[in-house]
TrEMBL record:
CDD domains the record matches: RPI_A
Pathway: Carbohydrate degradation; pentose phosphate pathway; D-ribose 5-phosphate from D-ribulose 5-phosphate (non-oxidative stage): step 1/1
Catalyzed reactions per annotation: aldehydo-D-ribose 5-phosphate = D-ribulose 5-phosphate
Organism: Pedobacter albus
InterPro entries documented for this protein: NagB/RpiA_transferase-like (IPR037171), Ribose5P_isomerase_typA_subgr (IPR020672), Ribose5P_isomerase_type_A (IPR004788)
Keyword Isomerase listed: yes
UniProt keyword list: Isomerase
Active site as annotated: 111
Entry protein name: Ribose-5-phosphate isomerase A
Subunit: Homodimer.
Amino acid sequence: MAAATLNNRNLAKQLAAQEAVKLVKNNDIVGLGTGSTARFALMALAERLKEGLQIRGVPSSLATEAQAKALGIPLLPLGEVAQIDISIDGADEFNEELQLIKGGGGALFREKIVASLSKNRVVVVDSSKKVAQLGAFKVPVELVPVACRYVLDQFEALGGQAQLRYKNDALFITDNQNYIADVDFGLIANPEELAIQLNQIEGVLAHGLFIGLATKVIMATGEGLLVFEQSQKGS
Ligand SMILES: O=C(CO)[C@H](O)[C@H](O)COP(=O)(O)O
C-alpha cells in the first residue's frame, strides 16, 4: 500500500508494525497476528525477507495464512510448533498493565495460542487502542455452537449483555467453526477475575481478555512511537 494513500490512523498502524518487525532476528520463528495492523507487520516482514532475513511464520488465522503465503513468507502450522520466538499482533484495547481485549477480527483463539507459545509478545497499535480501563470494546468470546444458549445465559449471570456476531446477515463462523459472542460487561474493574470466570464456562473456547500475554506494546501517535513494557508505564 502506498504511503500517500494511507490515512493517519493507518499510517500509525504501519509505523508501529514496522517498529515491531525491527525486533525480529534471523532464523526466528515469528507468530503472525491477525487484523489490519498485523497485516502491516506481514508487509514489513516480507520487505525484510527480500533483504535476506530468514524466518518462518506461524499464522494466527486462515486470513493471515493466505496473506502471508501471498507475500512469500514461509509458514509453519500452528498445531506443530512448540515455541515461537516473537509474535506481533494487534489489539482492540490495551491498558497500562498491558492487559488486552482482542478478537475484533474473530481470531482470538488462535491468537491466544500464538501468544501463549511466544517468548516475546509484541502488540502493535495506534493510539485509539489505549484505555484507562478495559471494557468500552465488548469482549469477544468464541463459543461452541451446541452450547450457545447455556453460554449466553452464563454471560448474563456474570452481568454481561451478549450479542452473537453476524457477518453479511449470517452468523459469523470462526476458523474453528464456532460462534463469536460480543459481550458488554461495561468497564471491567477486575479483568483477571473476569478472565477466570469466563474460562470456567463450559462451551467457551476462548475469550478476548489477554492477561499476561503481552510483553511490549508499541503504539504510534501523531508525535511518534511510545513503547510500553511489562512493569513500566511507557517510554
Ligand atoms: O484481535 C484481533 C483480531 O482477532 C485484532 O488484532 C484486533 O481486532 C485489532 O485489529 P486491527 O489491527 O485491525 O485494529
